[in-house]
Amino acid sequence: MSRSSLSRAFFFLLQRDLLLAFRRRAEVVNPLLFFVLVISLFPLGVGNKPQLLQDMAPGVIWVAALLAAMLSLESIFRSDFEDGSLEQLLLSAQPAPLLVLAKVTAHWLVTGVPLIITAPLLGMLLGLPGQSIGVLMLTLLLGTPVLSLIGAIGVALTVGLRRGGIILSLLVLPLYVPVLIFASNAVEMAMAGLPIVAQLNILAALLFLALALTPLATTAALRISVS
Amino acid sequence: MMKFLHKLTSPPYFYHFSGRLLPWLSGLCLLLLLAGLYGGLVLAPADYQQGDSFRIIYVHVPSAWMSLFIYIVMAVAGGVALVWRIKLAEVIAVSSAPVGASFTFLALITGSLWGKPMWGAWWVWDARLTSELLLLFLYLGVIALYSAIEDKRAAARAVGILALVGVVNIPIIHYSVEWWNTLHQGPTLTKFDAPSIHTSMLIPLLLMAVAFKLYYGIAVLLRARNELLQREPNSGWVAELPEVK
Predict the structure, then answer these.
(1) Any idea what DSSP says for residue B40?
(2) Model pLDDT for residues B9-60, shown as the tens digit of each residue
């Protein structure tokens, strides 16, 4: 199998998933709305003291991003599983981990990137100082792909179940903790004017680790779910 | 040795072998448990700083060790089940999860009972505690996933994948919360040059640790036997068991 046919399969599947996502715009917009809504609940819930909100902002934004990412995970494989195209993908001549990677990439472009673009606005509303907003975007850029990659394993394991939603959150959220800790810590450090190279390096390392390993685990899980 | 292991992976042989093993394990476990408790609660002197409340480590520390140990056992058994499709490995992996979750819960509870007089709070968001809590959630995830999938063989393989993914994450979670913040006291036993714990306190602790390991062995064997019977209710070897006849 030549390299060009591998990359063609990857981009073809990516294009297909993006096209499908744009045909169902509600599914694209809902996680984003959820993200904004959860964050806007915090000033109402804990009170609108500017200092308090500023202190909580990195954690609040990241927790909301985690929840929004989790909410949208099902769309990676659910509809393909239901109409049978997932089985065809696994049977195809192309390596399944590569196809999984294409689907996860499409999911990240559709749900992760909008979060990154909206985050500065929400950061400003919560009173994050200017220099840390860039860092927030950087951590989201490194962190949200990891959320999609790890989440894909959880969806692959639960896609065959009728009510996988609650179990999915139980499976996936503990695995999200490292990303949450290092990302929100980086933003806090940036707010305090301290160096953040270590945190960003670890986030990048998590991203590469996830890129290398999670497609294999996801493929194995999918084979169990469709069998 | 290999031949014996090979034979052991067959469900009927395992069932009979574990049946003969269990009374011995139970007796030894009880003996060590009593010795450890007597040594820890009666013989060992009170700690110069923490007084008598340090004695909770005789339950707390072995449970915390077991919580990690069982997760690793579960992941290894899950991996073996994925690669070689050995039924017994599947059964061991899924039977370990509830036992591991109980030990994790016990470690958390005894830790918070100890934390109240020592730190003045039932719960602190400290590195060790938080990673132990997340470990509990990983166990609960495994249990929930196994019970949600109807086909038990597929469920066991799914559990294997989840356990392996979780085992990759355990060191990451452990160090991430460690670097995040920390209050828990440093290790007292794993300092190789000179353990900062007196021998009279150490020996009961080690006895308790071995007793807890044996208890896990007993619990997992019982669960595995039960699971095997549930999985193969119609097979010939089950029908021939004297307790079934």
Answers:
(1) I
(2) 788 888 888 888 888 999 999 999 898 888 888 777 766 666 677 788 888 8
CA–CA distance, B87 with B9 (Å, rounded to integer): 7
Determine contact, residues B75/B164, Cβ cutoff 8 Å: yes
d(CA A27, CA A85): 19
Contact A185, A148 (CB under 8 A): no
The DSSP output letter for A110 is I
Q: Three-state SS for B124? A: coil
SS3 A173: helix
Residues 18-77 of B with CB under 8 A from A: none
- The pTM is what? 0.88
Residues 6+ apart with CB under 8 A from B183: B119, B124, B126, B127
B47, β-bridge pairs: B51
Do the Cβ atoms of B6 and B89 come closer than 8 Å? no
DSSP, collapsed to helix, strand or coil, labels residue B47 as strand
ipTM of the complex, rounded to two decimals: 0.87
Whether B169 sits inside 8 A of A175 (CB atoms) is yes
Specify whether the CB–CB gap between B221 and B29 falls below 8 A.
no
Give the rounded percent of residues in chain B with a pLDDT score beyond 70. 89
Residue B161 contacts A, CB cutoff 8 Å: yes
pLDDT beyond 50 at B182 = no
- Residue B46 DSSP label: P
CB contact under 8 A, B172 and A174: no
Q: Is a pLDDT exceeding 80 seen at residue B142?
A: yes
Q: Please give the Cα distance from B13 to B16 (Å, whole number).
A: 5
Pairwise CB contact (< 8 Å): A170 & B144? yes
Q: Closest CB to B165: pick one of A160, A173, A175.
A: A175
Q: Give how far B128 is from chain A: nearest CA, Å.
A: 14
Q: Report residue B192's pLDDT band, with 50, 70 and 90 as the boundaries.
A: very low
> Coil, helix or strand for B215?
helix
Residue A162 pLDDT level (bands cut at 50, 70, 90): confident
Q: At B186, is the secondary structure helix, strand, or coil?
A: coil
Tell me the average pLDDT of chain B.
83
**Which token pair is A147?**
């959320």
The helix/strand/coil state of B41 is: helix
Of B12, B1, B87, B58, give the one whose Cα is nearest residue B205.
Answer: B58
Cβ–Cβ under 8 Å, residues B156 and B104: no
From residue B216, give the alpha-carbon distance in Å to each of B8, B36, B39, B55, B121. 19, 16, 21, 22, 30
Tokens 């709070």 appear where? B121
Contact status, residue B136 vs residue B105, Cβ threshold 8 Å: yes
> Taking CA atoms, what residue in B is nearest to A226?
B154
Q: What is the pLDDT of residue B193?
A: 47
